[in-house]
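re: ur question from earlier - yeah i can do the single chain one, its not a big deal. heres the input i used so u can compare w yours
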Amino acid sequence: MKKTRKILLFFLLPLILISVPLSSPALDFSKLKGMIDDEVIHLLEILPPDEFYPDASVIVVLDEKVDEVLAQRTCRSTLHTVFKVIKEGGKGYANVEIGYNSRRENIFVEYARTITPEGEILPMKDDVVTMATPYSNYPSYGEYKILTFSLPGIVVGSIIDYKVVIEKRRPTMEGEYASRFYFQGYEPAFLSRFKVIAPEDMDLRYYIRNPLKEFATSPKTYHEGGKKVFLWEYRNIPQIMPEYNMPPFSEIAFNIQGTTVRSWKDFFSWWNRLKDDKIEPDEAIREKVAELTGGLKDPGEKAEALFYYVETEIRYVSINLGKSGYEPTPAREVFENKYGDCKDKSTLLISMLKAAGVPAYYVLIPTRGVGRLIKDFPYPFQFNHCIVAIEGERKYQFLDPTGETYPFDYLPSEDQDRDALLFKGQQGIFTRTPLARPRENGVLYRQTIRIGPDGSIEVEKRSLDFGDVGAYNRATYMDCGPTELREIFEGAASALHPGAKLIDCSISDPFDFKRPFTKTYRFIAEDYCKRAGDLLIFQLPGVSYSCLTPVKEGRKYPIELCSVHFLRNEVEVDLPDGYGVYYLPKPVEIKTPYFDFCSSYRYEEGKIFYQGERIRKTTTIPLEDYPLYRKFCQEMERGSTDWVVLKKEKDFEGSRDLGTQGSSERQTL
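and the output i got, formated as tokens:
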């Protein structure tokens, strides 16, 4: 009988589903005619039910950008956005922020409104529109502003409809038009449109990134009212589902770059005109250079001294080139202000190096987070960062004075292994920054552990931090007082074992860049070892290795890691009197194209010695290699969390290092 019911239910289920409406009853949007755009009404009428978008918090009904290019390549951009809130998390989309440059652009809200689920129109109140100056503490960057407004009455089912106009009075690059538009985002788009209305004589160059297979990439072109029109329009754009360590958004999202710039030579000439008169050192700069380099003859030593001055004494204002503009502030002003963004700190460093007789050059770079440089398409605004290059004996050395806690000989990982543009004289040269060796970036942990007969442990743990790890920890600890420092290490000890008691702690000088940054602390952890009769069982505290990313069985995108690095643990364990080794984990060795891992224990004269190391050798894991990569990561994690077993010697029989017998576990990809 039960089986018969199951069969009937199986056949009736489709009929039951058909009888249940997919969403709440649709509104009669025709009642809104004359109050909102006819196209928006039509899109809302044919919009699929919410259930078609199970992973979305909003549905982008319309995402449109219309650029009307005017005389001298000035531009009027109209942004029209309509979306429907279908989950609680989508309510935040009603808080809108749009950045603009007040020196070159005007911005205003043409209209903004909420359409309630019942069909009522709630216009935005005038007093909710504000103009914020995010860098108000730095007058040099006061021209970058953010227009903000918030829509009223937002509930699940609300529709947001707003139109914003940006009038560019002066193009960023005089006489040239450049724009970018993303057809795809983290929410699904029902209709996405980019339209360029240009003078008849304008030649528009464009580059499509990450096109979706089912869509044509060529625009519809036509002539209207004495203008040439380029139109890209797509429906049913799937949303991008975020993944941990996915490639940069520009590398995976369907987007377009358009420009009138015909060659990189035009861009070189333009930027050379902006920068050439900015690096000349004045008397104050020359005096400071003489003070900092007095007694130094080697150009490298002079460069190092000047680098540390600009890095540590000139405050960094973290604004990318798109927000602050491309024109550098004169070096003398940066020196007086004692602050600057990337291009301004680079300007001062180049000026000081010039005064010291060390040739140095600007380098424009797209950092790791914004995607690769497209060298065969002269879109001028692919860069978000500016650094410095000096010539070595056989190659350039790249310096980033914005890092603040980085050593002279280590480039931040965001700048590594990137195509870049170097300006030497009036010439622009494509170059590539180096990828540091794994041994230059990472951490070496050294522990000594004394085990008591009661299973307690007393631990001294020291970490030596290099590269990015060292820079991060220097920044973290540079302003710590003794009370805060002790609290940090109390937390670290407790994380290794709940209830652990800190004995003492110390750090090295965060500004001693000649040595790795070092942290040392001692603690006692009672009842750390597990007791089982005459056995003491424990894991080495804080010794673990993880790839972090390969949790999911499958992925949509390759894994992009920020850097290569190493993680090494060296541990010495003093055994309690009367105990010997009953079991030690076997050696493990794993070699892959992406990382190497080894782990080994040995017993010698009443002590256990452990060495383990993971070396990450690359920053990219291709999608097709993910299953094997995940498998070996899991093997590594299991191999690094094994247990050591001690036993009282009076009952002990056999070899004291019984656990080290047998072959090692060796895996190769």
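The longest strand covers residues 58-69. not sure if urs matches, ping me
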